[in-house]
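Re: the request from the purification team.
They wanted to know what the chain is likely to look like in 3D before they choose a buffer screen. I agreed to run a prediction and write the result into the notebook, where they can find it.
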Amino acid sequence: MRTIIQVAIFSLAISLLADSALADELFIYPTKGQSQEQMEKDKYDCYQWAKKESGFDPMALPTATEPPPQQAAPRGGLVRGAARGAVVGGIAGDAGKGAAAGAAVGGMRRRSYHREEAHKREQWEQQQAANYQNNRNLYNRAYGACLEGKGYTVK
């Protein structure tokens, strides 16, 4: 369930990126007097060709190229740290202080674990966004080349 939510959040982020990419749409001008009908046909033909050449479909929902990093089940934390500290403190003569110190160490370990997991997740999201943008750029180059070959100016 958690993975599904994470993938949904990633998909939302990519769709926002896709919307910004669509804002950078190409301007296409017919230089040989092509009709609107002919231009639409040429655009569709070039869409099909560029999709095949680049392996990227700008009309498809973005998908991840690899699964998100797996989150290991956290170990330890406050309770386990407190228990260990109490045992050590009991041996040393003050279980209460040992439990408090153990809980503090366990809490620090837990926060460190969460920071590390968040960092891995952020790196994965950035990699996926970069992959998407690279694929989109490759598609745009192929699409523009096709249209230019059919007698259009593409900017």
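For the purification team: The first helix runs from residue 2 to 23.
Please add any questions underneath this entry.
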